[in-house]
Each structure stands twice: as structure tokens, then as C-alpha cells.
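Reading group handout, session on sequence-to-structure problems. Before we discuss, look at one worked example. The prompt was deliberately terse, the way you'd type it at a terminal:

> structure ABC-type polar-amino-acid transporter

The input record follows.
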Amino acid sequence: MSDTVPAGVTIEDLHKSYGDNEVLQGISITVNPGEVVCLIGATGSGKSTLLRCVNRLEDPNSGRILVGEFDATDPDVNLDAMRRKIGMVFQQFNLFPHLSVLENCTITPRRVLKQPRAEAEAEAMHQLELVGLQHLAHRRPAQLSGGQQQRVAIARALTMKPSLMLFDEPTSALDPETVGDVLAIMRDLAQAGMTMIVVTHEMGFAREVADRVVFMNQGRVVEEGPAQQVIGAPAQPRTQDFLRRVLNPLGE
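And the output record:
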């Protein structure tokens, strides 16, 4: 889906606090170029905050984050240049309601990359075709289902030809029937070699697609390893308890 060279990510001893609440307590994770890493854990464990620190939507208190050739925590880093290499898809779709699907996908390449309209529209239509929505290019977001809007959000991120994709629970706001469509797009991205960090509660997706799974609890990494190992045979009692509740919520 992209001819851009994938970027690796190195997170070293990352701390983030909001007042007295220490949300991240010394997180260290390495994501190799082309690798898919899923972050799992209960709400409030720091997963989304970690993701937002990677592209500096949140400023960490201490620690280091390397994204490709960029040191994201360097005070002198060119954030605009770094963020052009990072695509991020949120829980909510964050599409501009007054713009068409095509316009949503071309506004950033035209304004940030200064692409001519024809070039930006050609790339946008290419990405929309890859997510199966080229026929809806001239509709407004309100005319689309939630799953369709999230697929547009992914296409929009890909028009910037990122080296790294960040997904923050991209299916949590979707109808169960549309979750599979979005996960299929993400699986295709992974198979194409995109570096991905995914915060998710979709254990089936994590087991199938992730190279590694990181289980976080109360701002710390409790367990990490191959997806089949962490999800199928977790070693840590806290991981075991979390997965038992997620995979068998009725406790039967």
C-alpha cells in the first residue's frame, strides 16, 4: 500500500505524568521496521498515552523516543517533518464533516506537501480504491457508515505515504458488523510491510496479525513476546487474569 521505507521505533525508559498521576512508568519497547506490535491491557493502563507520545501529541516527562531517523524527544526535533512520516488513526474518525471523502484525503497532501490538486487526487483515489471506497469519493462523511468512515481515515493517513502507522483502538467505536472490514485493511497493511503499533482489544486480530504483543498494566510493561505466546500461553498472572476476563467475559 506504500512504497515508503518502514521506520523502526525505539522507546527508552519513558515516563509521563499528569499531576500526581504517573501514567507511564518507565516504558521501554523496540519496534523493528516492518514489524506489527499490538498493545493490550485494561482501560487506563497507559496504552493510548504511549501512542500519543510517539508522535508528540503528548510530551513525555522523561525518556527517549526514536522514530526512524528522528529523535522525537529532542527539543530541537523538526516535529512537522517527523509527523509527515507518521500516520495515526484514532478511535473517532476525525473527518472534516463539510468536506467530501476525496477532499478529506487531499487536504493534507495539498497543504503540507504542496502537491498539485491532480497529483493529490490521483493518490487519494488510489488509496480509496485499496480500502474499497473509491465509489464514495464524493460523499460527505455523514453519508457513510462508521466502518466506512474509519476506512476513509486510514486512506487519508496513507496518502501521506507514512513510514509508521499508529492505531488507537480503531474499531472501538464501530458496529460489530463493520469491525472486520477495518481489521482486514489493517491486515493488508501489515502484510505489505508497514511498521504498525496498534492499541486494540481485538485479541483475534492481535493473535493473527501481530509479530509481538505487549501487555501493559498501570503504566508498566508486564509481559511481551510473540502473539501466540502472550495471548495463548501468558506467563504472568496479571496477563492471565486480563485475558481470562477479555476472552471469557461471563466467566463460564
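Points for discussion. First: The first helix runs from residue 47 to 54. Second: The two ends are 42 Å apart (CA to CA).
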